[in-house]
Request: fold
Amino acid sequence: MRKLFGVCGLGLIVAMAIVVNSSGNVSAQEFTYTPQFNSKNELMLPRNHIWREWVYSGAIVTPNSLKDGAAPFPEFHSVWGEPGAYAYYKKTGKFPEGTGIAKELGLVGSTEAVSGNGFFMGKLQGFEITIKSKKLYPNEPGNWAYYTFGHHAEPYNKSAKKMPAEACNACHESTAADDFVFTQYYPFLAAAKPK
Ligand code: HEC
Reply:
């Protein structure tokens, strides 16, 4: 038996994944992140860079040097999954109500170091997050909503409007490997999925 409870009120969502482990014991994993909205219903930038404490899922590099000098997304992409959602995914292979997945962007800094030539991350350059919630986003494809807090150095924007589905959901829906999430590029997340 696997159940997921979500309680939503005053723009807050509190979710708890409850799973039964192989020995029959029930374990509850509370989510560490609760999306907060301002009076304009914009998502607030998560406090204290909390996503940097989430489960590291993978890294992508799209250097400007491979894109005629102008990659549409700044060059390094670091991806983290909220730990409660990650624990649920590891047990069930599904992203639960309340899942948050963060992506922080960075520029290529140095191209050589004592270890040799390469692409070494330099300045941070933006933050985006996607949240899955049937309660908050009943009409979004897959119940995923996408937010960008700017492709620029810190400070990131304090709040962000939900992006239109055609700008974000469409590409994720058609090309991501697992429920709108690009697990094909996140080896750590892909390895966590039960076989
Ligand atoms: C043309 C396709 C495309 C569009 C459009 C797109 N993305 Fe993505 N997105 C990707 C790919 C590919 C990845 C895999 C990781 C990477 O390349 O950074 C990704 C990963 C992500 C992730 C990490 C979690 C996940 O679902 O894999 C977030 C967050 C994200 N995108 C936000 C956005 C936002 C916000 C928008 C709209 C402004 C958007 N994306 C539009 C292709 C797209």
